Amino acid sequence: MKVTIKNWNAIAQWRWDIGKEFDETDDEDLCGICRVAYEGCCPRCKMPGDDCPVLWGECGHVYHMHCIMQWIEQQPPNKQNCPMDRKPWITAERKTANTATQQTQAVQS
């Protein structure tokens, strides 16, 4: 039997890789400042995606870029802390699971 596909509609979904498995019931998939999902956009943006990325702090907390930048701008220069744990905010270098695995293998070599 021969099958001919006449029409095909692709559907895709994307997520920011925040370093953990997705769980729809988990509140940690929300920005701690605006309380909007990372896959959405912050209140300042109209469309999610590369124009509204997420930033990781060295403390491990994740926020929409515009949310944390606005938070930092509102704080006195000597009190620019993470809103969740009040540690000094330092933007961390992003490490995905693949990067961590490669670094581990390089150290073991």
TrEMBL record:
Q: Can you name this protein? A: Anaphase-promoting complex subunit 11
Pfam families in UniProt: zf-ANAPC11 (PF12861)
MF GO annotations: cullin family protein binding; ubiquitin protein ligase activity; zinc ion binding
GO process annotations (BP): anaphase-promoting complex-dependent catabolic process; cell division
Q: Which keywords fit this entry according to its UniProt record?
A: Cell cycle, Cell division, Metal-binding, Mitosis, Ubl conjugation pathway, Zinc, Zinc-finger
Q: Which GO terms describe its cellular component?
A: anaphase-promoting complex
Answer yes or no on keyword Heme: no
What region holds the RING-type domain? Answer: 42-86
